[in-house]
């Protein structure tokens, strides 16, 4: 598959173990990010008795099995979600290794899959796709699209969206690629922010706050506001990160595009393709959301879904994202029917649609990721 000559099972097992370790970290992200806690401090501790988890009790899958799914100090049950996330990440990483082969592109796919796995589990539990994750993931997806296109130096045999936008597909001019590419990176996070503000301006009056009116707890509000402040700080940091990536992009183009013009042209095309793909898919889902509000006065599609699908479109390309939307809707319908028969709330039971879209993205990713080494080497 590549130039490395180690037996293939070695790679598969390595990917699985790496997936378990990343899955263990994702558990921390899934547990703490919605609560506005740091993912670094404090160290892992039991959710019931707060006893710190020793390193030898923190081995993915193994510790859960040895402890019988219970805390060592207080014997409280540990949620089965923890080993599920670890096993899920392990299997996903192994499958990606089988598809893409050992390469640096695989690392980008690992990172993307990790983001989606975290979003799936957070949405399933909290009905929430946190901005703290979707904002930086968008910049990462754009940079990945540019890097993959530039590095592989191959033109995708698919419809290229930049062909229909006048002026985008003309001859490669370094200063223009440096400037326009930098703008795309720098404006990615502010673009999401603008979407959030605009959406709140248009639709916040449709949200139903009435059910919360009875039990307004001062402490609860203070806690919510603290989480909000932390998340806003993270979003500002993401905007600065976007500017840093923009400057890095411009510097790379100015310094190296004369020597590697073909690669930079491909990278620039990859970046514009990813940006416009995100705009089209995000816009499409936002229109569906708007239609729900205007016609039925309900939130059929969350704003988090819009941003997650923009990330998916940037990383996997817009036409693959359409497939994700289709498959996600099918998965959502199946889960909706199960909810209908198992829940007393019937069709009013909230459906974590973002989680369905995320699962669809992982499935589609295994079958349709462009640029993979596997395809290129053939
Ligand atoms: Zn405990």
What does this protein look like?
The protein has helices at residues 8-32, 62-66, 81-100, 104-126, 131-152, 174-203, 218-256, 261-296, 303-316, 318-342, 353-368, 373-376. Helix 5 (131-152) runs antiparallel to helix 6 (174-203), helix 6 packs antiparallel against helix 7 (218-256) and helix 6 runs parallel beside helix 8. 38% of the residues are buried. The protein has twelve helices and no strands. It has two domains: 1-102, no CATH class; 131-376, no CATH class. The radius of gyration is 22 Å and the shape is globular. It has 378 residues and is mostly helical. 69% of the residues lie in helices and 0% in strands. Zinc ion binds next to loops. Zinc ion (ZN) binds at residues 46, 48-49, 51, 71, 73-74, 76.
